[in-house]
Specification:
CATH topology of the largest domain: Rossmann fold
Radius of gyration: 23 Å
Distance between the termini: 28 Å
Shape: globular
Strand content: 5-15%
Strand order of the largest sheet: 4-5-6-1-7
Number of helices: 16
CATH superfamily of the largest domain: P-loop containing nucleotide triphosphate hydrolases
Helix content: 40-55%
CATH class of the largest domain: Alpha Beta
């Protein structure tokens, strides 16, 4: 955040007692144009992608680091900027001795949470290469592969694909990506995930790029920068940002989820500042460890609807999966049977998105009774879901 922004922030006069929140600015799943505190990492990625500025494909690479470290924020924004460059035919390339007109590769960003099958991967890659409408059903994987192969053949300098959130399911790790893209020519990829690649894996160690958790002061600055656009005036003070940053331990996702939750509490109470109690309530709404909201919003719509209804249940209604399922099914906006909701809850528990906490008598046949607890930021999810 520059000095002018800081001055304008202090000049704002808040006349309304009710806090107004820009959810996109505070959302953990929304990425700003200039990620805070990641300049050196961007430079490392640009060094790796440097062959593209000569009209050549860079080698395959891997970006890895823990949740909330800014992997998606950096790579998605970087590839968006590079995609704009690749849309300019005969882009001007500056060399040490002269200026040349040269085509650069096309840059495409794909989210493996949504493209978790070969069909979906090929479709999203093809969608990034053509303005034509691409079907998402009614055709097979082979049909999609052939269209993608044709599209790649029309790219004079090839394609660089960033494939984000790899490894969040057992079926779509880096080996899956390698197998899916190996038959295609004219494409290199940058895999983004949480786990470090194997030293003897398919990517050379020189193309492994680790990103660590945010340092506390950087995370404070990130929170203040987001708050500058998300809430008016001096709604969030430095002490509040420091409290959230200390608690979040370098996880920007959880920090922003807590900030959005705190803003929700303040707004509900008609306040125009985030008080200490609001900050603590926001923190309490984020379980540790927390499932990323990006993963929640990548779920099918009917499962998101079930989760939205779940977080409104009182403790008694969540005392067993059966009771929770029956209560959720009775919600007018759900339109699912109790048996379907119950099946969804078990699936969500297996995926770690909700937790079944056993209680009572666990002897006897069948599953023991268990309380259903969300494992994701509840207040932030509620506000973002309802805002959509």
């Amino acid at each position: 955040m520059d000095i002018d922004s800081r001055i304008r922030r202090r000049q704002r006069v808040q006349t309304d007692r009710r806090l107004i929140v820009d959810y996109d600015r505070l959302s953990p799943v929304a990425h700003v144009e200039d990620p805070v505190g990641r300049g050196p990492f961007v430079e490392r990625l640009l060094d790796h992608l440097d062959p593209a500025f000569r009209g050549e494909l860079p080698p395959n690479g891997c970006v890895y680091g823990p949740k909330g470290s800014g992997k998606s924020a950096v790579v998605s924004v970087l590839f968006d900027r590079l995609a704009s460059l690749s849309l300019q035919p005969g882009a001007v390339i500056h060399t040490a001795t002269r200026v040349q007109m040269r085509d650069v590769p096309t840059f495409v960003y794909v989210d493996a949470r949504e493209a978790s099958t070969q069909f979906a991967l090929y479709r999203d890659l093809l969608d990034g290469l053509t303005e034509d409408s691409i079907p998402d059903q009614g055709v097979g994987t082979d049909w999609m592969f052939e269209r993608l192969e044709d599209a790649l053949a029309r790219q004079p300098s090839g394609v660089v694909a960033a494939v984000d959130h790899l490894g969040e399911t057992e079926s779509n790790g880096i080996e899956w990506l390698l197998d899916s893209l190996a038959p295609l020519e004219g494409i290199s990829w940058l895999a983004i995930g949480r786990n470090a690649p194997e030293p003897a894996g398919p990517v050379d160690e020189t193309a492994h790029f680790e990103i660590g958790r945010y340092q506390e002061q950087v995370l404070i600055d990130l929170l203040m920068t987001r708050a500058n656009g998300g809430v008016p005036g001096e709604s969030l003070n430095h002490a509040g940002a420091r409290r959230i940053a200390e608690w979040a331990e370098g996880d920007a996702h959880d920090a922003l989820a807590a900030l959005l939750g705190a803003a929700d509490v303040a707004m509900s109470d008609g306040n125009n500042r985030l008080r200490e109690a609001d900050i603590e309530a926001g923190i309490d709404s984020v379980p540790r460890p927390a499932v990323s909201l990006g993963r929640i919003f990548s779920l099918p719509a009917n499962k998101q609807t079930v989760l939205r209804a779940l977080i409104d249940l009182d403790d008694d209604s969540r005392q067993s999966v059966t009771t929770a399922a029956a209560t959720i099914a009775a919600v007018e906006t759900v339109s699912l049977s109790a048996s379907t909701v119950k099946r969804f809850l078990y699936q969500l528990a297996e995926a770690g998105i909700v937790e079944r906490v056993p209680h009572g008598n666990t002897s006897g046949k069948g599953r023991p009774p268990s309380r259903v607890e969300p494992r994701f930021p509840t207040r932030a999810f509620r506000k973002l879901y309802d805002a959509r």
